[in-house]
Amino acid sequence: MKKIIVLAMLMAAVTGLISCKKDQATTVNIEGLINFMAGDVKIVDGGTVSAAKIGDTVKQGMTVKTGPRAVADIYFGDNVIRILENSSVVMTELVRNVADNRENSEFYVENGKMFSRVTRKLVDGEKFRVNTPTSVAGVRGTEFIVSEEEGKSNIACIDGVVVVKEQGSDDSTYKEVEAGKEANVEKGKPISVADLKEQNRANIKKIKDDIKAIREDIRRKFEEQRDEIRQAVIDEKAKNKQAVEDQKAKDQANIQAIKDDIKGQQDEIKADVSAKKDEQMDAVKNFEKTDTKSVKPEIKKFDSTLDK
Question: Secondary structure of the chain: what % helix, strand, coil (to 5)?
Answer without folding.
Answer: 40, 35, 25
